[in-house]
TrEMBL record:
Gene3D superfamilies per record: AP2/ERF domain (3.30.730.10)
Protein's recorded name: AP2/ERF domain-containing protein
Keywords tagged on the record: DNA-binding, Nucleus, Transcription, Transcription regulation
Domain AP2/ERF per the UniProt entry, residue ranges: 32-90
Organism: Panicum virgatum (Blackwell switchgrass)
Region called Disordered, residue ranges: 1-27, 204-235
Feature: compositional bias, Gly residues: 207-224
Length: 235
């Protein structure tokens, strides 16, 4: 302090109440797909837990973006672990696709799921499976799925496809059983839902003073895998 200078000059706030403390801003929720890794030099890979007891993983890729790698992760995980799989897009999987993946797993010596999702042949192989199911004379274990297609989703199929049948109907059957996560609009809804849940959890953690807070984790960080809505109407 300069000798002789008024004390107020050194402490401009002297005599005034201290400013009210401001709460630090909420941290921005961090989103990361489960089991998805960037590849040095570009591209993405799926790192999939296929045997929890042995902590065995399979790495699949490369993929052009994180969305494709996340979907590949889910397909491999569901094929190996079924309902135990930690999936990024659980609601995007129609029961028919889950059955297809289980079938691929049971025919492991003949069909390699990792190869299917990595080399770009998965969609065509799945479409072939769907057409074969629709063409069965006796639907057997697929009876419920096929009846749901014709009875509950007739309006979605469309009158033209129902009346014409044949390839047009088969095309609609394939289209209506595709994985929803291939649609950017569905992914946008899903990511928006995940962001809302993460924000709500952050605010709840702040409101409780951080007591008992514990972030969910996956093979590579927080993900939507543990936050799938259980009863939710999906666009």
């Amino acid at each position: 302090m300069i000798s002789g200078a008024p004390a107020a000059a050194a402490h401009p706030q002297a005599g005034r109440p201290p400013p009210a403390p401001t709460a630090p801003p909420l941290p921005v929720p961090r989103f990361q797909y489960a089991g998805v890794r960037p590849i040095p030099g570009g591209g993405w890979a799926a790192h999939v837990l296929v045997d929890p007891e042995r902590q065995a993983y399979r790495t699949v890729g490369p993929f052009p973006d994180a969305h494709a790698a996340a979907l590949a992760h889910d397909r491999v995980a569901i094929a190996f672990l079924g309902d135990r799989a930690r999936a990024n897009f659980r609601l995007a999987f129609h029961p028919m696709e889950q059955r297809f993946l289980r079938l691929c797993r049971t025919r492991d010596g003949e069909i390699d799921v990792c190869t299917l999702v990595a080399d770009g042949t998965y969609e065509a192989r799945y479409a072939t499976f769907l057409r074969a199911v629709l063409g069965l004379e006796l639907w057997g274990e697929y009876l419920g799925v096929v009846l749901e297609f014709f009875l509950d989703r007739a309006a979605e199929i469309g009158r033209e496809a129902l009346e014409e049948g044949g390839e047009k109907l088969a095309d609609r059957f394939v289209e209506m059983h595709r994985n929803k996560a291939v649609d950017p609009r569905w992914r946008a809804w899903h990511l928006g839902w995940v962001a809302a849940v993460q924000k709500q959890r952050m605010e709840s953690w702040r409101g409780s003073g951080g007591a008992g807070a514990g972030g969910s984790s996956s093979e590579g960080g927080g993900s939507a895998g543990a936050m799938q809505p259980q009863q939710q109407q999906v666009p």
